[in-house]
């Protein structure tokens, strides 16, 4: 498909001018942009940027939550053959500085006062930052800074520029090429400085087209756009597939109202990382535990039916008549109301990606009639490598190669990818590009995996993280950590063991889930530190660890990597403390250095260890949290012989 995003927008505006393109909830009311209005806004925004001096080849930074004008800014920059560079809205000023400098940003479109304040502060270290355009004027009335204007003023400049240059916009869009870089998405920087991934119009459009074909996405679908616009997943769903399929995107009022807005919108197409689905199920579990006895009985009774045959019915497989009848009754009494409470009552297809999802969690959603599937990809592959197709869903795989994609496994077990979605290059980093692209055009994902006899890809771990115990057994820390995080009581886990005789683990409890449990047990606690150290909580975590060890004992080649000892950390691992990336991936090396005293205590056989840790608060202040952490031995099991 040799076209560009601005041309796709104009195509929808010409063919379906009054159909809804985007919605935004503001002050409790949903506002709608038709395709014609969206195209007009983009045209005026483009002309306004041109009036300010924005030229072909320049980069436009975009920072903020999910807002129609910010999504339109992507296409406005592309209309001028410029390149949008979305940035994480929760990034602190110092993190933003690197991207602004690396991408040589002169123009920024920001959502609100919070982002404007950070940008004005950064002008001292990023002198090239000349123009800041803001969307939400609240709190900015008395700001009188050079180069700072509202988006309404940008539209006015656009109208004036268009009157003086009536053919400018059409000619500019016509000059765009499918091979042009359409976006620069910065990686999360798990192992170092973030890198700017340059993706073309062709790569994202063809990736979007593949997903649209697999799931039959069409203009009548609608999604809720709530994930960070700087994340590749949101760019695939809320920009690329939106413009290819022509469905409606809905922007929630705020991050705090997403669950409410989800119920109001009732999207037909939905995407969320596993932690969002985990949070939904945790809230359901908490509500059911607090429900009256008859409701709890009804829920348990029909969930047993759902687990037995729900996924089979969803996939169209044969199911005994009695089970089908019971499931239909359960759909009226339990599953339907449950989907409605979750805001998923109209879901036709839902996806999860970004991390492993637990089989129990995956089965739960599919069993209640939600067509939840997995996909797999990276920023460098437009989040598009594997996709699970209807009727071919496996709980422990990420699906088959997506249309237009070729996958092979290297001799060292690394997953290699070639096809429509692979990046053009890393921005200003030919050295880094050469490291991940081989002579045959394969992108080296860095993930270790295997392809089964059905062509499904199974991801084991990050290839660089796969190590060996001192005994020679393979050690895949992420694989074990994901098994731990499948329990609702455990929010995060970090495992150690490479080069050592046994595996030990740090564990973060889920404060909401464990706190609710503690209240039902009449167990008093004063906060996270106190709750995490309670013997009863440690006993609960020990049961989860024991279940993981039982699973590992039953898996071929994994028995030796059972967890020997563990501790529950006194604080949550946090991106603001540099322990996680902004996409909540563990910075393993950093954690090993920061908590070396705890690792030494785990492997030194100690029963407890005192630690004092510096933390950053949301307002920018720093403080210290200290605790004496108990260390527990975990129950381990003998290896289960593989079936003949």
Question: Could you characterize what this model shows?
Answer:
It is a single chain. With 644 residues, the chain is an alpha/beta fold. Helices cover 39% and strands 22% of the residues. The strands form 7 sheets. A 5-stranded parallel sheet has the order 4-3-5-6-7, sandwiched between helices. It is globular. The model has no long low-confidence stretch (mean pLDDT 92).
Task: Give a brief description.
By secondary structure, this protein is of the alpha/beta class.
Indicate the CATH architecture of the domain at 5-271.
Answer: 3-Layer(aba) Sandwich
CATH class of the domain at 5-271: Alpha Beta
The largest sheet, given as strand count, sense and whether it forms a barrel, is: 5 strands, parallel
* Overall morphology: globular
CATH topology of the domain at 5-271: Rossmann fold
CATH superfamily of the domain at 5-271: ANL, N-terminal domain
The largest sheet has its strands arranged as: 4-3-5-6-7
For the secondary structure, the number of strands is 28
Mean of residue pLDDT? 92
**What oligomeric state best describes the polypeptide chains here?**
single chain
What is the element layout, followed by pairings?
Layout: H1 5-15, E1 20-26, E2 29-34, H2 35-52, E3 59-63, H3 68-79, E4 83-87, H4 93-102, E5 107-110, H5 113-122, E6 131-134, E7 148-150, H6 151-164, H7 168-175, E8 181-186, E9 196-200, H8 201-215, E10 222-224, H9 232-245, E11 248-251, H10 258-265, E12 269-271, H11 274-289, H12 293-314, H13 321-342, E13 349-352, H14 359-367, E14 372-376, E15 386-387, E16 400-401, E17 405-409, E18 414-419, E19 425-426, H15 430-436, E20 443-451, E21 457-462, E22 467-468, E23 474-475, H16 477-485, E24 490-496, E25 503-509, H17 511-520, H18 528-532, H19 535-553, E26 563-568, H20 588-594, H21 596-603, E27 608-616, E28 622-633
Parallel strand pairs: 1-11, 3-4, 3-5, 5-6, 6-7, 10-11, 12-13, 13-14, 25-26
Antiparallel strand pairs: 1-2, 8-9, 9-19, 14-15, 15-16, 17-18, 18-20, 20-21, 22-23, 24-25, 26-28, 27-28
Helix pairs in contact: 1-2, 2-3, 2-6, 4-5, 8-9, 12-13, 12-14
């Amino acid at each position: 498909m040799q076209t560009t995003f601005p041309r796709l927008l104009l195509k929808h505006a010409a063919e379906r001018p009054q159909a809804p393109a985007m919605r935004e909830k503001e002050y409790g009311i949903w506002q709608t942009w038709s395709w014609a209005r969206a195209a007009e806004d983009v045209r005026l925004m483009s002309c306004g940027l041109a009036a300010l001096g924005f030229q072909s080849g320049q980069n436009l930074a975009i920072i903020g939550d999910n807002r129609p004008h910010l999504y339109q800014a992507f296409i406005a920059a592309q209309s001028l053959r410029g390149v949008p560079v979305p940035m994480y809205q929760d990034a602190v000023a110092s993190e933003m500085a690197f991207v602004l400098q690396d991408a040589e940003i002169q123009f920024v479109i920001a959502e609100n006062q919070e982002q404007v304040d950070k940008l004005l502060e950064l002008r001292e270290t990023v002198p090239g930052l000349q123009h800041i355009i803001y969307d939400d004027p609240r709190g900015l009335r008395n700001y009188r800074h050079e180069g700072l204007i509202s988006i309404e003023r940008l539209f006015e400049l656009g109208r004036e520029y268009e009157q003086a240059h009536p053919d400018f916009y059409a000619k500019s869009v016509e000059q765009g090429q499918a091979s042009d870089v359409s976006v620069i998405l910065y990686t999360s920087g798990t192992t170092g400085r973030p890198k700017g991934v340059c993706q073309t119009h062709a790569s994202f459009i063809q990736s979007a087209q593949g997903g649209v074909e697999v799931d039959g996405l069409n203009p009548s679908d609608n999604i809720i756009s709530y994930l960070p616009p700087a994340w590749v997943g949101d760019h695939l769903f809320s920009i690329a597939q939106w413009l290819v399929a022509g469905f409606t995107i809905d922007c929630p009022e705020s991050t705090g109202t997403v669950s409410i807005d989800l119920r109001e919108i009732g999207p037909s197409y939905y995407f969320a990382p596993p932690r969002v689905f985990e949070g939904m199920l945790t809230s359901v579990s908490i509500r059911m535990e607090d429900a009256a006895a008859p409701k709890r009985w009804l829920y348990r009774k029909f969930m047993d039916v759902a687990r037995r045959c729900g996924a089979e019915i969803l996939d169209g497989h044969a199911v005994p008549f009695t089970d089908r009848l019971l499931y239909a009754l359960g759909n009226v009494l339990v599953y339907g109301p449950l989907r409605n409470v979750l805001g998923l009552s109209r879901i036709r297809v839902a996806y999860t990606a970004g991390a492993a999802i637990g089989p129990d969690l995956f089965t739960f959603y599919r069993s209640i009639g939600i067509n939840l599937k997995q996909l797999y990809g990276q920023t460098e592959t437009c989040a598009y490598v594997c996709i699970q197709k209807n009727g071919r869903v496996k709980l422990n795989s990420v699906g088959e190669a997506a249309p237009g994609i070729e996958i092979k496994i290297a001799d060292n077990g690394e997953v290699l990818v070639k096809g429509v979605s692979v990046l053009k290059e890393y921005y200003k980093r030919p050295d880094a590009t050469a490291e991940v692209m081989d002579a045959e055009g394969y992108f080296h994902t860095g993930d270790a995996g295997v392809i089964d006899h059905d062509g499904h890809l199974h991801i084991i771990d990050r290839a660089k993280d796969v190590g060996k115990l001192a005994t020679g057994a393979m050690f895949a820390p992420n694989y074990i950590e994901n098994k731990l995080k499948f329990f609702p009581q455990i929010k995060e886990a970090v495992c150690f063991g490479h080069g050592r005789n046994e595996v030990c683990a740090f564990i973060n409890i889920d404060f909401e889930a464990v706190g609710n449990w503690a209240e039902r047990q009449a167990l008093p606690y004063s906060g996270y530190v106190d709750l995490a150290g309670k013997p009863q909580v440690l006993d609960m975590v020990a049961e989860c660890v024991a279940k993981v060890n039982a699973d590992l004992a039953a898996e071929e080649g994994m028995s030796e990597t059972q967890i020997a000892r563990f501790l529950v950390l006194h604080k949550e691992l946090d991106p603001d403390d540099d322990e996680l990336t902004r996409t909540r991936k563990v910075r393993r090396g950093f954690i090993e250095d920061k908590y070396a005293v705890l690792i030494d205590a785990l492997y030194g056989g100690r029963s407890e260890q005192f630690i004092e840790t510096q933390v950053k608060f949301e307002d920018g202040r720093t403080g210290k949290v200290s605790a004496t952490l108990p260390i527990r031995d975990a129950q381990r099991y003998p290896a289960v012989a593989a079936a003949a």
